[in-house]
Known about the structure:
Layout: E1 3-7, H1 11-22, E2 27-31, H2 34-43, E3 48-52, H3 63-75, E4 81-85, H4 90-99, E5 103-106, H5 111-148, H6 159-172, E6 178-181, H7 188-197, E7 206-210, H8 216-224, H9 241-244, E8 249-253, H10 260-272, E9 274-276, E10 283-285, E11 289-294, H11 298-304, H12 309-315, E12 318-321, H13 329-339, E13 345-346, H14 348-356, H15 362-376, E14 381-382, H16 394-404, H17 409-418, H18 423-430, H19 434-444
Amino acid sequence: xPHILVVDDNPAVTIALEMLFSLHExxxxxxxxxxxxxxALARTPVDLVIQDMNFRAxxxxxxxxxxxxxxxxxxxxxxxxxxxxxWTHLESAVDLIKAGAADYVAKPWDDHKLLTxxxxxxxxxxxxxxxxxHRDGAxxxxxxxxxxxxxxxxxxxxxxxxxxLSLACQVARSDLPVLITGPNGAGKEKYAEIVHANSAxxxxxxxxxxxxxxxxxxxxxELFGADAGAYTGANxxxxxxxxxxxxxxxxxxxxxxxxxxGQMKLLRVLETGRFERLGSNRERQVKVRVVSATNxxxxxxxxxxxxxEDLYYRLNAIELRLPPLAERQDDxxxxxxxxxxxxxxxxxxxxxxxxxxxxxGNVRELRNAVQRAALLSPAxxxxxxxxxxxxxxxxxxxxxxxxxxxxxxxSIEAALRRHDGVLAQAAADLGLSRQALYxxxxxxxxxxx
Length: 449
């Protein structure tokens, strides 16, 4: 049940409010002085405070109410406070709204409007508590990740990245093959390193091979090695990546580029741990954890016969999907700051430009863009122009301007009429916070009654 603290030295006021709120299943505690209010807050959690502006019969300045609000706001900055005020204290109440008060209500109040405001604020308070619980849970989860696992210095802040990291650390402890999917430049090799660093073979070697960077006829030799004379130019025997990764992890990037013969041999070594070098009949045995990655649509390649279905299911025992950078907005600025050289910072406009950019090249593009801008910027602060991004399209620019534009008198008055003068609802309709609406109304001279 929600709990409200009513602070007023007039028993008639506190009794009336207690009766009103009890009819709507809201618990009420009364306090007749600022001192009693602060003691009650220290003793009992409440969801909302409704406070008078004066507490002594010979005082009408409102100074006591100002002092009480500031004391509450200092001790409980997230606690919403509604000010009960006579018209003579309107200016003080407006100043307190600017300082963080949730709303003010003139005496005598309208029960319907007061209840509407109270319900809105209680819902907002519950939302804030839920967000706080979520943030606290996310913070504890992140601390546990960083405490319990080796994250290889990865920089992240977005919840999507945290989920991917959590899964990577979870699957690392098995010996099953892992398939990392995601666009180019999203950080697939970094996640492969994290899987290795938290696996049972973390003390063994981590060996990487980009299957898309070699001609098809050389990939098999790179993977499995070759005896002297196995192919033109093979003047001596060479060790393959599987042998080099024995007792550790082999990371195969762009696995979709592996030719059919290589796919068949890879399937065999995944199933048996055995293979032969090119040009050799001697079978070799290795124990290797395989982590593969691709930006290709492997099921589509299977449909065309370009990729073996049985190999796909063998590699894809566990799939780890990495979202593109554009879908992890909270990672952009931490990564950008990480890539900055010492002594360089980003201006606010530069940060906004980074957040607006679509990042088709993902983290790799971001790193290159930041390093290039830092190199081309003689000043310590990098401005948006240094990135050389294309200007926003006219339609997008006008839309952004419309979002930032403050509502005019007509828009505000229409919103107030639509919502029967309930400021919290009008503010939500206009896309403003209550404080922003109050400031705009004051600037335009719109009365709140």
